[in-house]
Amino acid sequence: MTFVDEVKNAVTPRAALLVIGVLGLQLLFIASYVGALHKPKPTDVAFGVVAPQQMSQQLVAQLDGLPGGPLDPRTVSSEAEAREQIMNREIDGALIVSPQGRTDTLLVASGGGTVLSSALERLLTQVEGEQERTVRTVDVAPASADDFDGLSSFYLVVGWCVGGYLCASILAISAGTKPANRQRAVIRTSVMALYAIAGGIGGAAIIGPVLGALPGSFWGLAGLGALVVFSVGMTTLALEALTGIVGIGLAVLIIVVAGNPSAGGAFPLPMLPDFWRAIGPALPPGAGTWVARSIAYFRGNAVTGPLLVLSAWAVAGTALTLLLSMRRRDGRDDKGVEAPSPSGGSTAV
Fold first, then answer.
1. What is the pLDDT of residues 299-334, one digit of tens each?
2. Of 299, 175, 316, nearest to 238 (Cα)?
3. Is the pTM of the predicted complex or chain greater than 0.85?
4. Which of 22, 51, 245, 280 could form a disulfide with 97 if both were Cys (CB 3.0 to 4.6 A apart)?
5. What sign does the CA torsion over 204, 208, 213, 216 have?
């Protein structure tokens, strides 16, 4: 047997295609993470301005015209309103101009990401200095002292996502690469739901009572975790049912390659490039990170949209998994022949 024949036997065409696919994922991983995170800078940050009427519009125009467009300023009626909008996550910070003195107040929320609040402080200090004014910073929603750079919520959600697609991958390949019948799909969905509940409660217990890294409702975080795990798991099962083992790679592409760098974890969304800022809120890691921070630091505000995103992934994944399983019924293929299992017997659950 020639060397070429040995290579053909050692590396089948299917294996070669899978290796090429893995290489593509590897390069996309590098491009996505480096592209999103190599040069963070604030862009169009929602920012409030509270100032006397005669100077309010002028100040908004000045901030709007800063080089690079770091701020998206708008007039806010009062400091109380500015604080409320920050807690509702409508704006990321606000400048309260003192009509008498020369010291103004900058409101930030490090719970939404300490990198962004620090960037706002540096920017406004420079702007105020050019006007021969000073600024003092007030943190309206401070990150926990045990939550370095506000990253705990992001890593919590990443852990839930990893658990979701790993569990689904094991379920998908344990008895063949496609669900052979409706019964198997229902059982896998039920197992995924139970696993999601356990993962949600476990993650919330570690991040809260055990490590004290995040404040906020324990059961709120546990419920979020269950939804994140289930949505990612069912999306993985659906993709696997649709494309076979390639579906696991597609799940990694969506959740890890596209989802993690765009989640607003390491750097909040206003500091990411436009592409990642656009896709982040529509993917499970981004939606989950937003809700986790809202539960921990913003009184659970502004979570309806992200929860609907997670629910949509969960419903779509479940529906597609069950619909595709109907192609085979009662363990028989489309011709009515008993489908063999990988071990040579009848199909197993």
1. 999 999 999 999 999 999 999 999 998 875 544 444
2. 316
3. yes
4. 51
5. positive
